[in-house]
Amino acid sequence: MFYSVITCSAAVAWAPKEPLSLETVEVAPPKAGEVRIKVLATGVCHTDAYTLNGHDPEGLFPCILGHEGGGLVESVGEGVTHLSPGDHVVPLYIPQCYDCKFCKSPKTNLCGRIRSTQGAGVMPDGTSRFTCKGKSVFHFMGCSTFCEYTVVSEFSICKVDPEAPLDKVCLLGCGISTGYGAALNTADVQPGSSVAIWGLGAVGLAVAMGCRERGAARVIGVDINPDKFEAGKPFGITEFVNPKEQERPIQQVLTELTDGGLDYTFECIGNVHTMRAALESCHKGWGVSTILGVAAAGQEISTRPFQLVTGRVWKGCAFGGWKSRDAVPQLVQKYMQKKLMVDEFVTFNFPLDQINEAFKVMHEGKALRSVVNL
Ligand code: APR
Ligand code: ZN
Predict the structure, then answer these.
(1) Which family does the UniProt entry place this protein in (predicted)?
(2) What is the pTM of this model?
């Protein structure tokens, strides 16, 4: 089958720290093992801002950012059998090839199949499908959803229920699944337990949702923004501590509040100091602390080793530990059955030409998530 180049609009990141620029781009047809998607909606996430701000050592420019998307398959390359044009899909920044040693292990979701080319901002054959003003433009996280059409590897995409609203379930491509899965898969929160969550953005509130589902008895939100307690209640936050209002270190405050410490803690900020506080707030003997936040390049975590010798466990996960192609369609079903909140995470909607506004409200802390409608 012959497919032609598509000319469409995209928000291009030409250089670090510059606003995104609305451009006309050319999107080449999918090659073997690739899929071209008509993107209908995309979330805006901190990882996009992290790269745009030049903090990502892997960041390459010019590029098309965006990795929380939803759309329709427009065309498929040679050999792609699990999708056909018209399918409703969510692109996946953690692929699942079913064949590499990571995919074959039940212990991890970190498929390694296209890791090196994805990190280099190109398709698995080493080239880009995007051109703008005669220049080749890099892909981002294997998704590049800030464009009306994008091309992804067949391993980086899953088919979802065609009834599901793509301008909502696009958020299951990153933030919500990350938090929810950290509670269910990584920490495996048990009924009746006590939990503290640092950072009540979309990620932290999705953790809370998972803890409530598991029957946690206490879910304490820890945030420097006092508005976050009310905002967190619908997601399962039962108590709130603002570290700024405490005279003593937060570890001490929480240890006293919980008779020796928490069963589970989660860091959803990306700050190495709160990562330490979260570990040290765990109960001796069994407390488990899970890191979800992405710290700036070069940062390191520290604690006294005695903390681990005495039975606290430090963990971390990416994309909530979900094996992406298996899990995302099931998470969409759970949402359709009203067993998983998604709509409540959408604070703003913007058209593509106002995408810089979405970054602005995110930096101002006003948005759980903004969805850009393409
Ligand atoms: N102590 C407590 N809370 C803090 C602190 C701090 N030192 N610094 C920030 N916060 C709170 C903010 O007030 C905010 O409510 O953390 C929350 C972070 O939420 P968002 O900025 O909305 O971030 P979110 O989208 O949830 O992502 C969280 O996960 O994706 C990773 O590293 C990425 O930073 C991102 C993190
Ligand atoms: Zn794999």
Answers:
(1) Belongs to the zinc-containing alcohol dehydrogenase family. Class-III subfamily.
(2) 0.97
- The ligand minimizing its distance to the Cα of 94 is 2
Q: Quote the tokens at residue 295.
A: 């710290």
Nearest atom within ligand 1 for CA of residue 294: 32
* CA of 268 relative to ligand 1 center, distance in Å: 6
Per-residue pLDDT of the chain (374 residues; tens, 9 = 90+): 678 999 999 999 999 999 999 999 999 999 999 999 999 999 999 999 999 998 887 779 999 999 999 999 999 999 999 999 999 999 999 999 999 999 999 999 999 999 999 999 999 999 999 999 999 999 999 999 999 999 999 999 999 999 999 999 999 999 999 999 999 999 999 999 999 999 999 999 999 999 999 999 999 999 999 999 999 999 999 999 999 999 999 999 999 999 999 999 999 999 999 999 999 999 999 999 999 999 988 999 999 999 999 999 999 999 999 999 999 999 999 999 999 999 999 999 999 999 999 999 999 999 999 999 99
Ligand nearest 110 Cα, by number? Answer: 2
Ordered by where they begin, the domains of the chain are 6-175+321-373 (3.90.180.10), 188-316 (3.40.50.720)
